[in-house]
UniProtKB/TrEMBL annotation:
It is found in: Cell membrane. GO terms for cellular component: plasma membrane. This is SMR family multidrug resistance protein. The chain crosses the membrane at residues 33-50, 57-78, 84-103. It comes from Enterococcus hermanniensis. Keywords: Cell membrane, Membrane, Transmembrane, Transmembrane helix, Transport. PANTHER family: GUANIDINIUM EXPORTER (PTHR30561:SF0), SMR FAMILY PROTON-DEPENDENT DRUG EFFLUX TRANSPORTER SUGE (PTHR30561). Coiled coil: none annotated. Belongs to the drug/metabolite transporter (DMT) superfamily. Small multidrug resistance (SMR) (TC 2.A.7.1) family. InterPro entries: EmrE-like, Small_drug/metabolite_transptr, Small_multidrug_res. It comes from the Bacteria. GO terms for molecular function: transmembrane transporter activity.
Length: 106
């Protein structure tokens, strides 16, 4: 259940990053409020995961899910362009997240 909470927390991390972009510097109230809701939900589920998982595992996985997911959302929704070097490092990030999970023993 801790892993489910951690993954949900990561998805809320992507959610609030996206709504923060859509808030245009917090000038749009609806997106600004959604950003705050997403932040609270992300921290809540991260806190739930931390009951069972070590911080040295949960925190990097949480930030990694948010980072990689936000990159994909940026490319798909906001037409961000990635260089080949950036794509390489995103792959390294994904590899690192998977490696942390499989070597943690949890």
């Amino acid at each position: 259940m801790a892993w489910v909470s951690l993954i949900v927390a990561g998805f809320f991390e992507m959610f609030w990053a996206t709504t923060m972009k859509l808030s245009e510097g917090f000038s749009k109230l609806n997106y600004s409020l959604l950003t705050l809701v997403g932040m609270v939900a992300s921290f809540y589920f991260l806190a739930k995961a931390l009951h069972s998982l070590p911080m040295s595992l949960a925190y990097p996985v949480w930030t990694g899910i948010g980072a990689v997911g936000s990159i994909f959302i940026g490319v798909l929704l906001f037409k961000d362009r990635l260089s080949l070097a950036t794509i390489f490092f995103v792959i390294l990030l994904i590899t690192g997240i998977i490696g942390i999970k499989f070597t943690s023993g949890h």
